[in-house]
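Dear colleague,

Following up on yesterday's call, I've attached the two folding results inline so they're easy to grep. Please treat them as preliminary; we haven't cross-checked anything against experimental data yet. The first protein's sequence and C-alpha coordinates come first.
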Amino acid sequence: MVAAAPIPVAGWGDRDDPWECLGERSSGATVYRVGEKASFYVKTTLPRHPDDPRFNPVKEAERLRWLADRGLPVPEVVALGANDDLQWVVTRTLPGRPAARHWRPEERWRVIEVVADAARRLHDLPVAECPFERRLPDLIHEAKSSIELGAIDLADVDTAHEGWTAQQLWDKLSRKVPPPEDDLVVCHGDLCLDNVLIDPDTLELAGIIDVDRLGVSDRWFDLALALYNIGEDDVWGYGPAHSEHFLRRYGCPTVDEYKLAYFQLLDEFL
Protein backbone atom coordinates (compact mmCIF):
# COMPACT_ATOMS: atom_id res chain seq x y z
CA MET A 1 0.00 0.00 0.00
CA VAL A 2 1.02 3.63 -0.60
CA ALA A 3 1.61 5.72 2.52
CA ALA A 4 0.17 8.90 0.99
CA ALA A 5 -1.74 9.73 -2.17
CA PRO A 6 0.71 11.08 -4.78
CA ILE A 7 -1.91 13.47 -6.21
CA PRO A 8 -4.74 15.59 -4.77
CA VAL A 9 -7.97 13.74 -4.05
CA ALA A 10 -10.71 16.27 -4.78
CA GLY A 11 -14.14 15.64 -6.26
CA TRP A 12 -13.63 11.90 -6.48
CA GLY A 13 -12.97 9.14 -3.97
CA ASP A 14 -12.14 9.66 -0.29
CA ARG A 15 -8.97 11.01 1.24
CA ASP A 16 -8.80 7.92 3.47
CA ASP A 17 -9.14 5.42 0.61
CA PRO A 18 -6.26 2.93 0.38
CA TRP A 19 -3.89 3.28 -2.56
CA GLU A 20 -2.14 0.29 -4.13
CA CYS A 21 0.69 0.86 -6.58
CA LEU A 22 0.50 -1.69 -9.42
CA GLY A 23 3.87 -0.67 -10.82
CA GLU A 24 5.34 1.28 -13.69
CA ARG A 25 4.41 0.31 -17.23
CA SER A 26 6.75 0.31 -20.21
CA SER A 27 4.71 3.28 -21.49
CA GLY A 28 6.12 5.36 -18.63
CA ALA A 29 2.89 5.41 -16.60
CA THR A 30 2.73 4.45 -12.93
CA VAL A 31 -0.62 2.82 -12.16
CA TYR A 32 -2.50 2.86 -8.86
CA ARG A 33 -5.68 1.14 -7.73
CA VAL A 34 -7.67 3.23 -5.28
CA GLY A 35 -10.48 2.38 -2.83
CA GLU A 36 -11.53 -0.52 -0.64
CA LYS A 37 -13.34 -2.01 -3.63
CA ALA A 38 -10.83 -0.71 -6.19
CA SER A 39 -13.25 1.98 -7.35
CA PHE A 40 -10.71 4.03 -9.30
CA TYR A 41 -7.54 3.69 -11.31
CA VAL A 42 -4.97 6.48 -11.34
CA LYS A 43 -2.23 6.75 -13.96
CA THR A 44 0.57 9.22 -13.34
CA THR A 45 3.65 10.21 -15.29
CA LEU A 46 6.41 12.76 -15.10
CA PRO A 47 6.01 15.95 -17.16
CA ARG A 48 6.99 15.04 -20.71
CA HIS A 49 8.41 16.80 -23.73
CA PRO A 50 5.56 17.47 -26.23
CA ASP A 51 7.17 15.05 -28.72
CA ASP A 52 7.62 12.25 -26.17
CA PRO A 53 5.50 9.29 -27.39
CA ARG A 54 5.21 7.75 -23.94
CA PHE A 55 2.00 7.84 -21.89
CA ASN A 56 0.20 11.18 -21.90
CA PRO A 57 -2.78 11.66 -19.51
CA VAL A 58 -4.33 14.43 -21.61
CA LYS A 59 -4.31 12.27 -24.74
CA GLU A 60 -5.77 9.37 -22.74
CA ALA A 61 -8.62 11.49 -21.37
CA GLU A 62 -9.45 13.03 -24.76
CA ARG A 63 -9.67 9.64 -26.42
CA LEU A 64 -11.64 8.00 -23.62
CA ARG A 65 -14.25 10.74 -23.79
CA TRP A 66 -14.42 10.54 -27.59
CA LEU A 67 -14.94 6.78 -27.49
CA ALA A 68 -17.51 7.03 -24.69
CA ASP A 69 -19.53 9.48 -26.78
CA ARG A 70 -19.67 6.78 -29.46
CA GLY A 71 -20.97 4.11 -27.14
CA LEU A 72 -17.80 2.09 -26.63
CA PRO A 73 -17.20 0.51 -23.21
CA VAL A 74 -14.31 2.56 -21.87
CA PRO A 75 -13.48 3.86 -18.38
CA GLU A 76 -15.15 7.10 -17.30
CA VAL A 77 -12.71 9.96 -16.77
CA VAL A 78 -13.33 11.55 -13.35
CA ALA A 79 -10.23 13.73 -12.99
CA LEU A 80 -7.36 15.09 -15.04
CA GLY A 81 -4.60 17.23 -13.61
CA ALA A 82 -0.97 18.20 -13.33
CA ASN A 83 1.51 19.95 -11.05
CA ASP A 84 5.23 20.63 -11.23
CA ASP A 85 6.06 16.99 -10.52
CA LEU A 86 3.37 14.85 -12.10
CA GLN A 87 0.59 14.60 -14.66
CA TRP A 88 -2.35 12.28 -14.01
CA VAL A 89 -5.70 10.92 -15.12
CA VAL A 90 -8.25 9.22 -12.85
CA THR A 91 -10.87 6.81 -14.20
CA ARG A 92 -13.61 4.67 -12.72
CA THR A 93 -12.88 0.97 -12.59
CA LEU A 94 -14.53 -1.19 -15.23
CA PRO A 95 -15.68 -4.74 -14.51
CA GLY A 96 -14.01 -7.71 -16.18
CA ARG A 97 -10.49 -9.02 -16.45
CA PRO A 98 -7.90 -8.65 -19.22
CA ALA A 99 -7.68 -11.16 -22.04
CA ALA A 100 -4.06 -11.51 -20.91
CA ARG A 101 -4.92 -13.72 -17.95
CA HIS A 102 -5.23 -17.44 -17.30
CA TRP A 103 -8.46 -18.67 -18.92
CA ARG A 104 -9.51 -22.28 -19.27
CA PRO A 105 -8.31 -23.74 -22.60
CA GLU A 106 -11.84 -23.94 -23.96
CA GLU A 107 -12.46 -20.28 -22.98
CA ARG A 108 -9.40 -18.92 -24.78
CA TRP A 109 -10.98 -19.32 -28.21
CA ARG A 110 -13.97 -17.22 -27.13
CA VAL A 111 -11.67 -14.64 -25.49
CA ILE A 112 -9.79 -14.23 -28.77
CA GLU A 113 -13.09 -13.74 -30.56
CA VAL A 114 -13.97 -10.92 -28.17
CA VAL A 115 -10.59 -9.27 -28.82
CA ALA A 116 -11.16 -9.55 -32.58
CA ASP A 117 -14.68 -8.13 -32.25
CA ALA A 118 -13.34 -5.22 -30.19
CA ALA A 119 -10.78 -4.48 -32.90
CA ARG A 120 -13.44 -4.61 -35.58
CA ARG A 121 -15.71 -2.32 -33.55
CA LEU A 122 -12.94 0.29 -33.31
CA HIS A 123 -11.98 -0.08 -36.96
CA ASP A 124 -15.59 0.39 -38.06
CA LEU A 125 -15.76 3.87 -36.50
CA PRO A 126 -15.98 6.60 -39.18
CA VAL A 127 -12.46 7.80 -40.00
CA ALA A 128 -13.76 11.21 -41.02
CA GLU A 129 -15.13 11.79 -37.50
CA CYS A 130 -11.90 10.93 -35.69
CA PRO A 131 -9.92 14.02 -34.64
CA PHE A 132 -6.81 12.05 -33.72
CA GLU A 133 -4.15 11.42 -36.38
CA ARG A 134 -1.46 8.74 -36.24
CA ARG A 135 -0.52 8.44 -39.89
CA LEU A 136 2.77 6.90 -40.91
CA PRO A 137 4.68 10.23 -40.92
CA ASP A 138 3.40 10.80 -37.35
CA LEU A 139 4.56 7.35 -36.26
CA ILE A 140 7.99 7.75 -37.84
CA HIS A 141 8.33 11.15 -36.14
CA GLU A 142 7.43 9.48 -32.82
CA ALA A 143 10.07 6.82 -33.47
CA LYS A 144 12.73 9.50 -34.08
CA SER A 145 11.64 11.35 -30.95
CA SER A 146 11.91 8.15 -28.92
CA ILE A 147 15.57 7.88 -29.90
CA GLU A 148 16.33 11.56 -29.27
CA LEU A 149 14.62 11.54 -25.86
CA GLY A 150 15.96 8.16 -24.77
CA ALA A 151 12.41 6.86 -24.50
CA ILE A 152 12.84 3.41 -26.07
CA ASP A 153 12.51 0.54 -23.61
CA LEU A 154 15.27 -1.73 -24.91
CA ALA A 155 14.40 -4.29 -22.23
CA ASP A 156 10.98 -4.77 -23.87
CA VAL A 157 11.83 -5.62 -27.49
CA ASP A 158 11.34 -8.69 -29.64
CA THR A 159 13.77 -11.51 -28.88
CA ALA A 160 15.32 -10.99 -32.32
CA HIS A 161 16.38 -7.50 -31.17
CA GLU A 162 17.64 -8.32 -27.70
CA GLY A 163 20.96 -6.58 -27.05
CA TRP A 164 20.42 -4.11 -29.88
CA THR A 165 20.93 -0.39 -29.49
CA ALA A 166 18.30 2.16 -30.43
CA GLN A 167 20.47 3.19 -33.38
CA GLN A 168 20.62 -0.39 -34.66
CA LEU A 169 16.84 -0.57 -34.54
CA TRP A 170 16.57 2.73 -36.40
CA ASP A 171 19.04 1.60 -39.06
CA LYS A 172 16.97 -1.52 -39.66
CA LEU A 173 13.75 0.49 -39.94
CA SER A 174 15.39 3.05 -42.22
CA ARG A 175 16.38 0.35 -44.70
CA LYS A 176 12.71 -0.57 -45.18
CA VAL A 177 10.46 1.27 -47.60
CA PRO A 178 7.37 2.51 -45.71
CA PRO A 179 4.25 0.67 -46.89
CA PRO A 180 1.41 2.54 -48.60
CA GLU A 181 -1.28 3.83 -46.24
CA ASP A 182 -4.15 2.45 -48.27
CA ASP A 183 -6.34 1.01 -45.51
CA LEU A 184 -6.96 3.73 -42.93
CA VAL A 185 -9.14 3.03 -39.88
CA VAL A 186 -9.46 4.25 -36.30
CA CYS A 187 -6.72 2.22 -34.61
CA HIS A 188 -6.38 1.52 -30.91
CA GLY A 189 -2.62 2.00 -31.20
CA ASP A 190 -1.71 -0.59 -28.57
CA LEU A 191 -4.01 -3.49 -29.40
CA CYS A 192 -2.69 -6.14 -27.06
CA LEU A 193 -4.40 -8.67 -24.80
CA ASP A 194 -3.85 -6.53 -21.69
CA ASN A 195 -6.03 -3.77 -23.10
CA VAL A 196 -9.24 -5.70 -23.72
CA LEU A 197 -11.38 -6.58 -20.69
CA ILE A 198 -13.64 -9.64 -20.69
CA ASP A 199 -16.62 -10.41 -18.44
CA PRO A 200 -15.58 -13.74 -16.87
CA ASP A 201 -19.20 -14.85 -16.42
CA THR A 202 -20.55 -14.13 -19.90
CA LEU A 203 -17.28 -14.03 -21.89
CA GLU A 204 -18.45 -10.81 -23.49
CA LEU A 205 -16.61 -7.51 -23.95
CA ALA A 206 -16.41 -5.54 -20.70
CA GLY A 207 -14.09 -2.75 -21.72
CA ILE A 208 -11.30 -1.27 -23.83
CA ILE A 209 -8.50 0.49 -21.95
CA ASP A 210 -5.16 2.29 -22.42
CA VAL A 211 -6.23 4.27 -25.46
CA ASP A 212 -3.83 7.23 -25.37
CA ARG A 213 -2.36 6.09 -28.70
CA LEU A 214 -5.70 5.83 -30.52
CA GLY A 215 -5.94 7.55 -33.88
CA VAL A 216 -6.35 7.20 -37.62
CA SER A 217 -3.72 4.83 -38.96
CA ASP A 218 -3.31 1.85 -41.25
CA ARG A 219 -5.36 -1.16 -40.18
CA TRP A 220 -2.22 -3.28 -40.04
CA PHE A 221 -0.72 -1.09 -37.34
CA ASP A 222 -3.27 -2.64 -34.95
CA LEU A 223 -3.38 -6.10 -36.51
CA ALA A 224 0.41 -6.48 -36.52
CA LEU A 225 0.66 -5.84 -32.79
CA ALA A 226 -2.33 -8.04 -31.96
CA LEU A 227 -1.03 -10.97 -33.99
CA TYR A 228 2.42 -10.70 -32.42
CA ASN A 229 0.99 -10.41 -28.92
CA ILE A 230 -1.24 -13.46 -29.38
CA GLY A 231 1.03 -15.64 -31.47
CA GLU A 232 4.21 -15.10 -29.47
CA ASP A 233 2.56 -15.38 -26.05
CA ASP A 234 4.42 -17.68 -23.67
CA VAL A 235 2.53 -16.89 -20.46
CA TRP A 236 -1.23 -17.17 -20.88
CA GLY A 237 -1.56 -20.21 -23.13
CA TYR A 238 -2.13 -18.51 -26.48
CA GLY A 239 -0.17 -19.27 -29.64
CA PRO A 240 -0.12 -19.26 -33.46
CA ALA A 241 -3.41 -21.14 -33.69
CA HIS A 242 -5.08 -18.39 -31.67
CA SER A 243 -3.59 -15.76 -34.01
CA GLU A 244 -5.18 -17.55 -36.95
CA HIS A 245 -8.47 -17.70 -35.07
CA PHE A 246 -8.24 -13.95 -34.40
CA LEU A 247 -7.82 -13.22 -38.12
CA ARG A 248 -10.71 -15.47 -39.11
CA ARG A 249 -13.01 -13.86 -36.55
CA TYR A 250 -11.87 -10.38 -37.51
CA GLY A 251 -12.61 -11.14 -41.14
CA CYS A 252 -9.17 -10.80 -42.70
CA PRO A 253 -8.57 -13.78 -45.02
CA THR A 254 -5.03 -12.84 -46.05
CA VAL A 255 -2.02 -11.43 -44.23
CA ASP A 256 -0.10 -8.47 -45.60
CA GLU A 257 3.31 -9.84 -44.63
CA TYR A 258 5.19 -6.66 -45.50
CA LYS A 259 2.96 -4.42 -43.42
CA LEU A 260 2.97 -7.00 -40.64
CA ALA A 261 6.78 -6.96 -40.40
CA TYR A 262 7.08 -3.19 -40.87
CA PHE A 263 4.61 -2.23 -38.16
CA GLN A 264 5.93 -4.82 -35.72
CA LEU A 265 9.39 -3.28 -36.14
CA LEU A 266 8.03 0.27 -35.87
CA ASP A 267 6.28 -0.64 -32.62
CA GLU A 268 9.65 -1.26 -30.97
CA PHE A 269 10.05 2.53 -30.82
CA LEU A 270 6.57 3.39 -29.54
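Below is the second protein, in the same order (sequence, then structure):
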Amino acid sequence: MVISGQLPTQEWGRGLGCSQPDRKGGAVYRNHLWLRWPHLESRPLRDGVGVGIREAAADWTPGLQFDHLDSEWLGMPPLPSPRCLFGLGEALNAIYVVGGRELKDRESSLDSVMCYDRLSFKWGESDPMPYEVYGHAVVSHMDLVYVIGGKGSNRKCLNKMCVYDPKKFEWKELAPMQTARSLFGATIHDGRIFVAAGVTDTGLTSSVEVYSITDNKWASFEAFPQERSSLSLVSLAGTLYAIGGFATLETESGELVPTELSDIWRYNEDEKKWEGVLREIAYAAGATFLPVRLNVLRLTKM
Protein backbone atom coordinates (compact mmCIF):
# COMPACT_ATOMS: atom_id res chain seq x y z
CA MET A 1 0.00 0.00 0.00
CA VAL A 2 1.04 3.61 -0.55
CA ILE A 3 -0.42 6.58 1.26
CA SER A 4 0.17 10.26 0.63
CA GLY A 5 -0.07 13.32 2.78
CA GLN A 6 0.08 17.03 2.14
CA LEU A 7 1.82 18.34 5.22
CA PRO A 8 0.63 21.97 5.14
CA THR A 9 -3.04 20.83 5.20
CA GLN A 10 -2.42 17.87 7.57
CA GLU A 11 -4.60 15.62 5.40
CA TRP A 12 -3.81 11.98 4.63
CA GLY A 13 -5.36 9.46 2.29
CA ARG A 14 -4.68 6.27 0.37
CA GLY A 15 -2.71 6.39 -2.84
CA LEU A 16 -1.86 3.91 -5.58
CA GLY A 17 -1.08 0.55 -4.01
CA CYS A 18 2.10 -1.42 -4.54
CA SER A 19 1.46 -4.92 -5.86
CA GLN A 20 3.41 -6.42 -2.96
CA PRO A 21 2.08 -5.21 0.39
CA ASP A 22 4.99 -6.41 2.55
CA ARG A 23 7.10 -3.41 1.60
CA LYS A 24 8.19 -0.18 3.19
CA GLY A 25 9.64 3.09 1.96
CA GLY A 26 8.61 6.26 0.21
CA ALA A 27 9.20 9.12 -2.13
CA VAL A 28 8.00 12.67 -2.72
CA TYR A 29 6.63 14.57 -5.65
CA ARG A 30 4.81 17.94 -5.72
CA ASN A 31 4.50 18.53 -1.98
CA HIS A 32 3.07 15.08 -1.16
CA LEU A 33 4.65 12.34 0.94
CA TRP A 34 4.37 8.78 -0.33
CA LEU A 35 4.93 5.59 1.66
CA ARG A 36 5.45 1.95 0.86
CA TRP A 37 5.07 -0.83 3.38
CA PRO A 38 7.62 -3.20 5.11
CA HIS A 39 10.39 -4.10 4.33
CA LEU A 40 11.81 -1.54 1.93
CA GLU A 41 14.41 1.19 1.81
CA SER A 42 14.03 3.89 -0.83
CA ARG A 43 15.05 7.34 -2.02
CA PRO A 44 13.51 9.59 -4.67
CA LEU A 45 15.24 10.51 -7.91
CA ARG A 46 15.13 14.01 -9.34
CA ASP A 47 12.82 13.11 -12.24
CA GLY A 48 10.14 11.92 -9.83
CA VAL A 49 10.53 8.16 -10.23
CA GLY A 50 10.54 6.59 -6.78
CA VAL A 51 12.69 3.49 -6.30
CA GLY A 52 12.63 0.78 -3.64
CA ILE A 53 14.84 -2.19 -2.82
CA ARG A 54 13.33 -4.97 -0.73
CA GLU A 55 14.99 -6.29 2.43
CA ALA A 56 13.73 -9.83 2.56
CA ALA A 57 14.77 -13.17 1.10
CA ALA A 58 18.41 -14.13 1.61
CA ASP A 59 18.94 -15.10 -2.01
CA TRP A 60 16.73 -12.62 -3.84
CA THR A 61 16.50 -8.83 -3.51
CA PRO A 62 14.10 -7.41 -6.10
CA GLY A 63 13.30 -3.74 -6.62
CA LEU A 64 10.37 -1.68 -7.82
CA GLN A 65 10.12 1.75 -9.37
CA PHE A 66 7.02 3.90 -9.63
CA ASP A 67 6.35 5.62 -12.96
CA HIS A 68 4.38 8.73 -12.03
CA LEU A 69 3.43 9.42 -15.67
CA ASP A 70 1.65 6.09 -16.19
CA SER A 71 0.78 5.55 -12.50
CA GLU A 72 2.31 2.07 -12.55
CA TRP A 73 4.79 0.08 -10.50
CA LEU A 74 7.54 -1.38 -12.69
CA GLY A 75 9.93 -4.21 -11.90
CA MET A 76 13.71 -3.82 -11.67
CA PRO A 77 16.47 -6.41 -11.96
CA PRO A 78 17.15 -8.02 -8.56
CA LEU A 79 20.07 -6.72 -6.54
CA PRO A 80 23.04 -9.10 -7.08
CA SER A 81 24.16 -8.79 -3.45
CA PRO A 82 21.17 -9.32 -1.08
CA ARG A 83 21.50 -7.21 2.06
CA CYS A 84 19.60 -5.39 4.81
CA LEU A 85 20.14 -2.22 6.87
CA PHE A 86 21.75 -0.54 3.85
CA GLY A 87 21.46 3.03 2.60
CA LEU A 88 20.20 4.32 -0.74
CA GLY A 89 21.50 7.34 -2.61
CA GLU A 90 21.47 8.69 -6.15
CA ALA A 91 23.89 10.62 -8.33
CA LEU A 92 24.43 11.08 -12.07
CA ASN A 93 21.24 9.18 -12.94
CA ALA A 94 22.34 6.12 -10.99
CA ILE A 95 21.12 4.47 -7.76
CA TYR A 96 23.69 3.52 -5.11
CA VAL A 97 23.09 0.77 -2.53
CA VAL A 98 25.63 1.46 0.20
CA GLY A 99 26.89 -0.94 2.86
CA GLY A 100 24.50 -2.93 5.04
CA ARG A 101 24.56 -6.49 6.35
CA GLU A 102 24.54 -9.71 4.37
CA LEU A 103 21.32 -11.70 4.35
CA LYS A 104 23.21 -14.88 5.16
CA ASP A 105 24.00 -16.94 8.25
CA ARG A 106 26.99 -14.81 9.29
CA GLU A 107 25.24 -11.49 8.55
CA SER A 108 28.61 -9.85 7.92
CA SER A 109 28.84 -6.07 7.75
CA LEU A 110 29.53 -4.76 4.26
CA ASP A 111 31.66 -2.04 2.73
CA SER A 112 30.58 -2.86 -0.82
CA VAL A 113 28.50 -0.48 -2.95
CA MET A 114 26.19 -1.59 -5.74
CA CYS A 115 25.26 0.81 -8.53
CA TYR A 116 22.16 0.62 -10.75
CA ASP A 117 22.50 2.38 -14.11
CA ARG A 118 19.04 3.64 -15.06
CA LEU A 119 20.04 3.97 -18.72
CA SER A 120 21.30 0.41 -19.22
CA PHE A 121 18.97 -1.12 -16.56
CA LYS A 122 21.89 -3.06 -15.10
CA TRP A 123 23.52 -3.46 -11.70
CA GLY A 124 27.26 -3.09 -11.27
CA GLU A 125 29.72 -2.78 -8.41
CA SER A 126 30.97 0.67 -7.48
CA ASP A 127 34.01 1.67 -5.43
CA PRO A 128 33.81 0.18 -1.92
CA MET A 129 33.51 2.37 1.17
CA PRO A 130 36.57 2.98 3.37
CA TYR A 131 34.94 0.92 6.16
CA GLU A 132 32.14 -1.59 6.81
CA VAL A 133 28.87 -0.11 8.03
CA TYR A 134 25.18 -0.85 8.54
CA GLY A 135 22.24 1.02 10.08
CA HIS A 136 23.66 4.24 8.68
CA ALA A 137 22.09 7.17 6.83
CA VAL A 138 22.70 8.12 3.19
CA VAL A 139 21.77 11.47 1.67
CA SER A 140 22.43 12.79 -1.84
CA HIS A 141 23.23 16.36 -2.78
CA MET A 142 24.68 17.94 -5.92
CA ASP A 143 25.61 14.54 -7.43
CA LEU A 144 27.49 13.52 -4.28
CA VAL A 145 26.54 10.65 -1.95
CA TYR A 146 27.04 11.24 1.79
CA VAL A 147 27.24 8.33 4.26
CA ILE A 148 26.74 9.14 7.93
CA GLY A 149 27.05 7.17 11.17
CA GLY A 150 25.76 3.63 11.54
CA LYS A 151 27.45 0.65 13.18
CA GLY A 152 30.76 -0.95 12.29
CA SER A 153 31.78 -4.59 12.12
CA ASN A 154 32.28 -4.56 15.93
CA ARG A 155 28.61 -3.48 16.34
CA LYS A 156 29.67 -0.20 17.92
CA CYS A 157 28.05 3.06 16.78
CA LEU A 158 30.11 5.27 14.49
CA ASN A 159 30.38 9.04 14.26
CA LYS A 160 32.13 8.80 10.90
CA MET A 161 31.04 10.58 7.76
CA CYS A 162 32.30 10.24 4.20
CA VAL A 163 31.26 11.34 0.73
CA TYR A 164 31.46 9.61 -2.65
CA ASP A 165 32.14 11.55 -5.85
CA PRO A 166 31.07 9.38 -8.82
CA LYS A 167 32.85 11.73 -11.25
CA LYS A 168 36.20 11.09 -9.55
CA PHE A 169 35.39 7.51 -8.47
CA GLU A 170 36.64 8.22 -4.96
CA TRP A 171 35.56 8.33 -1.32
CA LYS A 172 36.62 11.11 1.03
CA GLU A 173 36.27 11.16 4.81
CA LEU A 174 34.69 14.29 6.29
CA ALA A 175 34.36 15.77 9.78
CA PRO A 176 32.79 13.25 12.23
CA MET A 177 29.50 13.82 14.04
CA GLN A 178 29.54 14.97 17.65
CA THR A 179 27.51 11.91 18.71
CA ALA A 180 28.08 8.41 17.33
CA ARG A 181 24.67 6.97 16.35
CA SER A 182 22.79 4.52 14.14
CA LEU A 183 19.16 4.15 12.98
CA PHE A 184 18.57 7.91 12.94
CA GLY A 185 16.88 10.44 10.68
CA ALA A 186 18.83 12.46 8.12
CA THR A 187 17.95 14.88 5.35
CA ILE A 188 19.20 17.83 3.32
CA HIS A 189 17.55 21.04 4.50
CA ASP A 190 18.48 24.61 3.62
CA GLY A 191 21.66 23.36 1.93
CA ARG A 192 22.84 21.59 5.10
CA ILE A 193 22.66 18.02 6.42
CA PHE A 194 20.50 17.45 9.50
CA VAL A 195 20.63 14.28 11.63
CA ALA A 196 18.23 13.59 14.49
CA ALA A 197 17.69 11.06 17.30
CA GLY A 198 18.77 7.44 16.83
CA VAL A 199 20.54 4.72 18.79
CA THR A 200 23.83 5.20 20.63
CA ASP A 201 25.98 2.64 22.44
CA THR A 202 24.20 3.58 25.70
CA GLY A 203 20.62 3.79 24.43
CA LEU A 204 18.31 6.12 22.54
CA THR A 205 19.10 9.81 21.98
CA SER A 206 17.10 12.92 21.16
CA SER A 207 20.08 15.01 20.07
CA VAL A 208 20.10 16.79 16.71
CA GLU A 209 23.13 17.97 14.74
CA VAL A 210 23.54 19.98 11.57
CA TYR A 211 26.45 19.73 9.11
CA SER A 212 27.66 22.65 7.04
CA ILE A 213 28.70 21.25 3.66
CA THR A 214 30.68 24.38 2.78
CA ASP A 215 32.58 24.55 6.11
CA ASN A 216 32.87 20.77 6.79
CA LYS A 217 31.73 21.37 10.38
CA TRP A 218 29.05 19.93 12.68
CA ALA A 219 27.06 22.05 15.13
CA SER A 220 24.45 21.25 17.76
CA PHE A 221 20.79 21.94 17.01
CA GLU A 222 17.59 22.06 19.06
CA ALA A 223 17.07 18.54 20.43
CA PHE A 224 13.97 16.58 19.48
CA PRO A 225 11.42 16.44 22.35
CA GLN A 226 11.72 12.65 22.77
CA GLU A 227 14.44 10.02 22.52
CA ARG A 228 13.70 7.86 19.48
CA SER A 229 15.20 5.50 16.94
CA SER A 230 14.31 5.18 13.25
CA LEU A 231 13.00 8.76 13.10
CA SER A 232 12.34 10.06 9.58
CA LEU A 233 13.46 13.60 8.75
CA VAL A 234 11.80 15.33 5.80
CA SER A 235 12.52 18.73 4.26
CA LEU A 236 9.46 19.94 2.40
CA ALA A 237 8.45 23.43 1.18
CA GLY A 238 11.17 25.06 3.27
CA THR A 239 10.12 23.36 6.53
CA LEU A 240 11.88 20.60 8.47
CA TYR A 241 9.60 17.74 9.60
CA ALA A 242 10.25 14.77 11.92
CA ILE A 243 7.99 11.73 11.55
CA GLY A 244 7.44 8.46 13.38
CA GLY A 245 10.09 6.18 14.77
CA PHE A 246 10.33 4.06 17.93
CA ALA A 247 10.41 5.24 21.53
CA THR A 248 10.50 3.48 24.91
CA LEU A 249 7.17 4.13 26.63
CA GLU A 250 5.78 3.02 29.96
CA THR A 251 2.69 0.79 29.93
CA GLU A 252 -0.12 0.89 32.51
CA SER A 253 1.64 -1.88 34.40
CA GLY A 254 4.81 0.21 34.62
CA GLU A 255 6.73 -1.88 32.09
CA LEU A 256 8.96 -0.04 29.60
CA VAL A 257 8.44 -1.33 26.07
CA PRO A 258 9.59 -0.19 22.59
CA THR A 259 6.62 1.48 20.91
CA GLU A 260 6.19 2.44 17.28
CA LEU A 261 4.96 6.00 16.71
CA SER A 262 3.43 7.61 13.61
CA ASP A 263 3.15 11.26 14.61
CA ILE A 264 4.42 14.35 12.78
CA TRP A 265 6.49 17.23 14.17
CA ARG A 266 7.88 20.31 12.48
CA TYR A 267 10.60 22.74 13.47
CA ASN A 268 9.46 26.33 14.02
CA GLU A 269 12.30 28.49 12.72
CA ASP A 270 10.94 31.67 14.32
CA GLU A 271 10.49 30.25 17.81
CA LYS A 272 13.40 27.82 17.55
CA LYS A 273 11.45 24.80 18.78
CA TRP A 274 9.79 21.56 17.63
CA GLU A 275 5.98 21.61 17.37
CA GLY A 276 3.54 18.73 17.13
CA VAL A 277 1.51 18.69 13.88
CA LEU A 278 -0.36 15.38 13.83
CA ARG A 279 -0.68 12.78 16.59
CA GLU A 280 -1.13 9.75 14.35
CA ILE A 281 -1.07 8.91 10.63
CA ALA A 282 -3.64 6.32 9.62
CA TYR A 283 -2.21 3.16 7.97
CA ALA A 284 1.37 4.22 8.77
CA ALA A 285 2.59 1.27 10.86
CA GLY A 286 6.08 0.18 9.84
CA ALA A 287 6.46 2.95 7.27
CA THR A 288 9.39 5.09 6.16
CA PHE A 289 8.73 8.67 5.13
CA LEU A 290 10.55 10.58 2.39
CA PRO A 291 9.86 13.78 0.43
CA VAL A 292 8.69 13.37 -3.17
CA ARG A 293 6.35 15.38 -5.35
CA LEU A 294 3.88 13.31 -7.36
CA ASN A 295 1.23 14.44 -9.81
CA VAL A 296 -1.79 13.25 -7.82
CA LEU A 297 -4.15 14.08 -10.69
CA ARG A 298 -2.68 11.17 -12.68
CA LEU A 299 -2.86 8.59 -9.90
CA THR A 300 -5.48 5.87 -9.70
CA LYS A 301 -8.11 6.81 -7.13
CA MET A 302 -9.33 4.30 -4.52
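For the second protein, one point worth flagging: The chain has no helices and 27 strands.

Best wishes,
A.L.
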